């Protein structure tokens, strides 16, 4: 059985602190806005880790027990939205509910849909979805009462969309150009701009710090994985760059990949990142 290590890294000192070691696969930690808990996925369910008390609490998602590692909190921290694989067709769809238990509400009737971001004003969700045989970036109002909006229309894979803290931009990763790199566009899907152009790495899952200054992302070596793949069980790096662009620096190297930082894992004060590594 693979063991998971939930950790926190200080972005200034680069020092890692172990939070808890788990038997089995734990994935995708994100911080509550008050800084007291980490929310993570394990075996199709959500859990909260109390950082002060060192205690785990399950989050009741009712009959939905096939959650993947795409979950985000509302800006006020009162709700959680997540992707769940429906049993009848095995397609992922997005739901929302009160953070510590309640009746999940379906947001995206179409699947597959993989959640990644919630707008700072709480009004919209942004996600990767496969429609007509192609993965692109879409957004929808958080209640799911309107038609979804397609934001990208590229033949390559676009994934990992997330709003900037001011709501003006959406960051995402795309294989436009042949390698997986970090991109940015305005929230309406216009003005696409490449933010990385690495010759050695495929870059995934950009996460903007709450203060808007930094972007963290996950990097795979190009000679080890395909541009469209983000598997577990690889030697990867969490890298950091300024949101205005420029060179990226390696924050931590680890054994991980899928599940390490699939969702935004910044601390509310923008000083630390939570992540998961795995024991080979």
UniProtKB/TrEMBL annotation:
InterPro entries: 6-blade_b-propeller_TolB-like, WD40
SUPFAM superfamilies: DPP6 N-terminal domain-like
Coiled coil (UniProt feature): none
Region (Disordered): 145-164
Pfam family, one: PD40
Family: Belongs to the TolB family.
PANTHER family: PROTEIN TOLB, PROTEIN TOLB HOMOLOG
Name of the molecule in the record: TolB family protein
Species name: Sulfobacillus harzensis
């Amino acid at each position: 059985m693979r063991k998971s290590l939930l950790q926190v890294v200080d972005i200034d000192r680069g020092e890692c602190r172990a939070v808890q070691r788990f038997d089995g696969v734990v994935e995708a930690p994100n911080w509550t806005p008050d800084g007291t808990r980490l929310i993570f996925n394990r075996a199709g369910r959500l859990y909260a880790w109390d950082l002060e008390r060192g205690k785990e609490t399950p989050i009741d998602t009712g009959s939905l027990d096939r959650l993947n590692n795409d979950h985000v909190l509302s800006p006020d921290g009162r709700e959680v939205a997540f992707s769940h694989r429906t049993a009848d067709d095995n397609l992922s769809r997005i739901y929302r509910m009160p953070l510590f238990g309640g009746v999940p509400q379906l947001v995206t009737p179409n699947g597959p849909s993989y959640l990644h971001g919630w707008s700072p004003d709480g009004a919209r969700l942004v996600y990767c979805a496969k429609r007509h045989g192609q993965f692109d970036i879409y957004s929808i109002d958080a209640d799911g009462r309107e038609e979804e909006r397609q934001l990208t229309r590229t033949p390559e894979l676009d994934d990992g969309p997330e709003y900037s803290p001011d709501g003006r931009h959406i960051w995402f990763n795309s294989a436009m150009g042949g390698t997986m790199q970090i991109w940015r566009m305005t929230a309406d899907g216009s003005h696409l701009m490449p933010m990385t152009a690495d010759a050695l790495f495929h870059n995934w899952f950009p996460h903007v710090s709450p203060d808007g200054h930094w972007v963290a992302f996950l990097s795979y070596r190009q000679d080890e994985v395909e541009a469209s793949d983000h598997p577990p069980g690889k030697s990867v790096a969490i890298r950091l760059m300024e949101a205005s662009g420029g060179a990226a620096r390696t924050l931590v190297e680890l054994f991980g990949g899928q599940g390490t930082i699939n969702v935004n894992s910044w601390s509310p004060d923008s000083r630390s990142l939570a992540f998961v590594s795995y024991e080979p």
